[in-house]
Design goal:
Four copies of one chain form a homotetramer. Chain A is of the alpha/beta class. Chain A has helices at 12-23, 73-85, 99-111, 124-139, 159-172, 232-243; strands at residues 2-7, 27-33, 52-54, 66-69, 89-92, 116-118, 142-149, 190-192, 195-201, 207-215, 218-226, 249-251. Strand 11 (218-226) of chain A pairs antiparallel with strand 11 of chain D, so a sheet runs across the interface. Chains A, B, C, D: Residues 126-256 form the Dihydrodipicolinate reductase C-terminal domain.
Amino acid sequence: MIKIIVSGFNGSMGQKVVKMINDSADMQLVGGFNPVINDLDPKSYGLPDDVKIFSKLEDINLKADIWIDFSIPSAVFDNTKFAIEKGIRPVIGTSGMSEEQTTILKKMADDKNLGGIIASNFGLSAVLMMKFAQTAAKYFKESEIIEKHHEDKIDAPSGTALNTARLIYEARGNDQIQHSSDDPMNTRGGDYHGTKIHALRLPGFVADEEVIFGGIGETLTISQSTTDRQSFMTGVKLAVHEVMGKNQLIVGLEKLI
Amino acid sequence: MIKIIVSGFNGSMGQKVVKMINDSADMQLVGGFNPVINDLDPKSYGLPDDVKIFSKLEDINLKADIWIDFSIPSAVFDNTKFAIEKGIRPVIGTSGMSEEQTTILKKMADDKNLGGIIASNFGLSAVLMMKFAQTAAKYFKESEIIEKHHEDKIDAPSGTALNTARLIYEARGNDQIQHSSDDPMNTRGGDYHGTKIHALRLPGFVADEEVIFGGIGETLTISQSTTDRQSFMTGVKLAVHEVMGKNQLIVGLEKLI
Amino acid sequence: MIKIIVSGFNGSMGQKVVKMINDSADMQLVGGFNPVINDLDPKSYGLPDDVKIFSKLEDINLKADIWIDFSIPSAVFDNTKFAIEKGIRPVIGTSGMSEEQTTILKKMADDKNLGGIIASNFGLSAVLMMKFAQTAAKYFKESEIIEKHHEDKIDAPSGTALNTARLIYEARGNDQIQHSSDDPMNTRGGDYHGTKIHALRLPGFVADEEVIFGGIGETLTISQSTTDRQSFMTGVKLAVHEVMGKNQLIVGLEKLI
Amino acid sequence: MIKIIVSGFNGSMGQKVVKMINDSADMQLVGGFNPVINDLDPKSYGLPDDVKIFSKLEDINLKADIWIDFSIPSAVFDNTKFAIEKGIRPVIGTSGMSEEQTTILKKMADDKNLGGIIASNFGLSAVLMMKFAQTAAKYFKESEIIEKHHEDKIDAPSGTALNTARLIYEARGNDQIQHSSDDPMNTRGGDYHGTKIHALRLPGFVADEEVIFGGIGETLTISQSTTDRQSFMTGVKLAVHEVMGKNQLIVGLEKLI
């Protein structure tokens, strides 16, 4: 039985994590953490009596296997440090850490031979899409990326689209061919080392992404569509199982696949 | 039997037109015109003996019902004027005429109660896509356009994409809502009165176009794909039949549908 | 101000309808009906004091403009009859009425010059898709339909897919060409007068539908995707406004578009 | 310089191969073979003087590195046997060999440490699609396949669709979950160990294939589209280069990727 503490247990993603744990025969929720709550009664959150609720890191005195964190950018570094020090394997979905912070945490965990993962995207379809794009990039010299999100997403392009372009560039080791273009309206998209990125913002979409590779007389398209953020839990569950058998901190779900 | 003269009969599109006529039980090729040829023997072009070949407009002395023109921008205005004067219904696929020239020709034909058509796109799937987009625009306030063409197409966006955006704007009568955006890489596409246009250029595509309409919890997508330019002949054939029963010059195949 | 009674006001769709009414400046919820409730206090349902709650048809003594019904198949006929008798325009989304019942209700409403609508699908994207398919069917002789739904949908094909095939057949007036086929695994789909229908059932989909028309060298695809059933409310809202100006009962949202 | 003999050099695919060789700086066409020709003059086929043309296997006395075969099912086994005996690496695109024949040829080549490949599909996009599907099958328990081909393709499903289903099944090691279904029209597709296959036949398509994987709240789609059979030459070229460094006969282009 894998014993789990959830940081941010009563937030939007945290509640999905708790549900995933309850639905998994080999996982047990042992603790919930959130620094901004006063009520420490598990029943107030619909949780069984034997789950301990904490609002201070220093009070956490449980033995646990896994620390799942979907909290907030300002807290995630200290949370993860705490977990590693206690020998609890971190599974971190909270975004916002600097590259430097990630490096520190990785060294800490690796020194203790402690498994763990920090990932910006736990969506399996997105992670596989990126992985496949890396391979396809070796065989197709030209590619473009289209991402489609709901109208309230302000930043463009999405992190996944940009990451995909970066992985394509790294796989190729050189810039993509540029075709001459007469484009007064700026319709040819954003450029990342020659791979064009196009971002759409429309109601009706949650989060879709596609990479198109073009060659003589053929195209190859890898696309993923998210219709419900519950999808992330499939990746979290996979990560929990995988890091139990690892002895270092991994950055990116694609490294586990 | 509909008697037809083809201007540009031995060019790439002209040859497709000749084939379409030969494959149609109710059409007959009576003449071919091209000002840059010397050889006026129909057999040199694989045509039957009773087809007359001309290299000068003034030599054309045939009675014909239809003048199909897939020639060159610099010649199309004079060709069409000639056809109308002779009472031959023009079916014009050659691009490059100014709005002023089109207006002059329309007045000439309308005054003579002569049917005819000038169209920039004879692809039925593209024309229907534009027509449907006009209707959908009344029910969906937000839309974006993606067009994908082969890597050698230099201009962006395509005429069809821009026309579609124009028709959407006219159907709505107002600019589309703008969402705030943080887009340092310019990935949000070209803007036509709020409708964003995205152009892709990759080998493997011939000419694809899609319009996406987004509303609360749903999207509607109208897309067309061209895999062979022979597709235009379906529209030319339709136009030939339709203009036989018209008594004015029509601009745009969508007006016949 | 359009005064509305909602039948099935506290069901899954009913609650969406109530929210839509509350979000609309020109609509007012005046009553809620459900025969299986005991509690008639509007506050128990989060509704304001001036909304009357009823559990018996005969108790409903309100003046109202519109009766929206998302209840159950066994009740909808009597509900609609009641509304028409009272001079309240019906907007019916509940499925399950026979053709005979629909005919009776239509006659009743038409005799009173009362506007109304009975529709199996209030999704605008689905309704427009069907409408466009009817037009495209006149220009393309061949088409196939693909529908994709969540894994729990037992019946196949979907009502929308079958309706689309029916509308295509009616628009053409004849069966679609059959190509000879060697298909031992039965992969060519279900057949409706020559138009093939393919049904997919996979987690991750809510309700998607696409119609593909194929011609020489080109395809035209009309597709719609539902990511949230809240989408139906756009169609219900449209219907409410439209039937206020009608004097007969309309069957099918496509007739209003 | 890689010296190549092309079997079926003047057929439809053979001519594409010859063009590919001529366009490649490191390849040289040294011979052409076709048992049904009488004219052995290379100029008759638009080939340079130093290319030898043969109509009998036993006459072929050239030193060559590669034997590319796009001929006919009844001849390919003997052709390949001949090539292996002569120490010429076979690159075989001709379909129609039995599993037994393939095994014999593989043993022959392997015993001589001779590189070579027999592949039913040289389309890189199709081969990558199959490869990615194998990986995705490990993470997604449910998938369906759609293939779309021109109306003249009689057999259904396509070899690529069936192969993809087989690879998915092998990757999972067990049958896919079956959902209960009420499907009187047979719209749920053909079944291969639980993975459903849907085949469309419409004008306008050349050869398209897509695999859809569904999970909770997300889908992953890998699709490939062929617009011109010239696309196969990218895979043939890759195969030529790869088998130069191999010492056994490989079955399936995916093994080289």
